[in-house]
Amino acid sequence: MKRTLLYAYEEKALPNWLQACDNDAEVLKSLAELGHNAANGQLLMIQIGREVQIEQINKLCQLNFDILALSNTPTDSEGLKLFQLGIKGYLNTYSTIDRIKQAIDTIKSGNVWLGQSLMQSMFAAMQPAKQANDNWKNLLTVRELATAELVLESLSNKQIAKQLNITERTVKAHLHNIFQKLEVSDRLALALKIKNW
């Protein structure tokens, strides 16, 4: 199993990162330690900002690192730029251990991690297909359709459950069925597929 690589120019960020990695981490003193070899999907948690700029992230993405970028002042515009380059996740540098762990687990399972605000910005930036095709709706039950439409509004499972007057467990079951029927793996892939159906 590949080790998670960590690079932060502020050492005070590292304790939470290390705890979230479950002893599966190597702290880098500089980015030069990465060399120029392809990473083959190795996870790199990297603090962006003062010492690490977007151009460096672009080069690291081209080397095939799965990058979890962490910023002291994350913004939707910065996040959108970074995701366009190919990062896999974007968080506040000082996020909680649990949130960092969720992001790591999500990325290691082959998905992307982004916050609700950034997801809303991505959905808003997507251009729908020139001729909207709603055939995907025919594949879903009434409740699955209602759930999918609320996902497109960037509602959380808890908010969807409240709005549809069902349990969060039922929302998860609907999402599982939706993902299976539309052949996607997560909310972002679902939104992309629906918007470009």
Descriptive notes:
Residues 133-197 form the HTH luxR-type domain. InterPro entries: Sig_transdc_resp-reg_C-effctor, Tscrpt_reg_LuxR_C, WalR-like, WH-like_DNA-bd_sf. Keywords: DNA-binding, Transcription, Transcription regulation. This is Response regulator transcription factor. It holds the Pfam family GerE. This protein is α/β, with parallel strands linked by helices and 197 residues long. It has 2 domains: 4-113, Response regulator (Rossmann fold, 3-Layer(aba) Sandwich); 126-195, Arc Repressor Mutant, subunit A (Orthogonal Bundle). It has helices at residues 14-20, 54-62, 76-85, 97-108, 116-125, 142-152, 157-164, 168-182, 187-195; strands spanning 4-7, 25-27, 43-48, 66-71, 89-92. Strands 2-1-3-4-5 form a 5-stranded parallel β-sheet, sandwiched between helices. β3, α2 (54-62) and β4 (66-71) form a beta-alpha-beta unit. α3 packs across α5, α6 crosses α8 (168-182) and α7 crosses α8. It is elongated and about 55 Å long. It starts with a strand and ends with a helix. The mean pLDDT is 83.
